Amino acid sequence: MEKERHVLVVFPHPDDEAFGVSGTIAYHVQKGTPVTYACLTLGEMGRNLGNPPFATRESLATIRKKELMASAKALGIQDLRMLGFRDKTIEFEDEKTLTDLIYKMILELNPSLVITFYPGYSVHPDHDATGRAVVSAVGRLPKELRPKLYCVAFSNNCEKELGSPDVIIDVSAFAEQKLATIRAHKTQTALFYDEFSKKLNKKDPDAFKWLHYERFWSYKWTD
Amino acid sequence: MQLIDKTIVQNYIDSFANKEIFIHLETTNGAYASHKDESFLNAGAFIRNAKIRFSLGKITGEGPYRIGLKLDSGWVYGEGLTHFERDEKGRLLMAGLNSKGQLAIALELSETPFD
Ligand SMILES: [Zn+2]
């Protein structure tokens, strides 16, 4: 994989970076590439409050903010930007305002690689709306000046409609960091982590595949 | 938050009666419910910082609990409530959490706007 100039990651929720992208981020950080992670919300409408509860609806934002900072630290991300939108509301924001905001970051950072969700194939409305705004921001640049745009997709129909992911990154060297990132979001990932650890202990091949390889679709421009 | 004690919660509800207060009311199945089961109809709603005023408010049931607030010209209703907390700002935070600790409903009352 070539060395990138700057990587810009844009997702709506703390923990979006942990699952399908953290190995890739760790890889670029280790290469000495600056990584900016712009996270649109604090996931304050998350469902997991614990049993017994460790949080209320009102205290969740503060807790998840700390987890996001711990996750960024585990990955070695130097530039973490919390953009202050509210969980579940991204699709209702003014699209131009969102696009302007991301476009400004692109001009400022001049990334050679941008990572976001594939609009239409990312299940959560916040994911799709974030992906849409990133695509329109990158699309404002003339074709030859556009950074590479890698998208995460996981809707049930994504492979059927988009084909197989064209970018597969071997992140097996960063498995520990990936797990540390997932653990950093412990209030949201504890249930997942328990299940996943069991699978790893049982040497489940799918679990290892998921841990060691990250999959992206290059955005298919129509122009 | 702790498990609801009906008497304590009833007293707290009473303390908000006949005042202009702010409400956060929310229900959710989680954003991924219909991703995991495509036949599942994902539904939910939230309203945050609506101003209400109720003359009569009650908590009922044997747990999970129901709450009804009788407004000057309408109602607020919630069911499935299991936990509560009166936080440091004097807000009454109530939630319905399933056995995995996942929120299904939140009903919160405050004399000052929520953040
Ligand atoms: Zn997310």
UniProtKB/TrEMBL annotation, chain A:
Co-factor(s): Zn(2+)
Q: Which InterPro entries match?
A: BshB2, GlcNAc_PI_deacetylase-related, LmbE-like_dom_sf
Q: Name one GO molecular function term.
A: hydrolase activity, acting on carbon-nitrogen (but not peptide) bonds, in linear amides
Q: Give one Pfam family, short name only.
A: PIG-L
Quote the NCBIfam families the UniProt record gives. Answer: thiol_BshB2 (TIGR04000)
Provide the protein name: Bacillithiol biosynthesis deacetylase BshB2
Species, as recorded: Fervidibacillus halotolerans
TrEMBL record, chain B:
InterPro entries, alphabetized: DUF1806, YojF_sf
Cite the SUPFAM superfamilies for this sequence. Hypothetical protein YojF
Identify one Pfam family in the record: DUF1806
This protein's source sits in the domain of life called: Bacteria
By what name is this protein known? YojF family protein
Q: Which organism is it from?
A: Fervidibacillus halotolerans
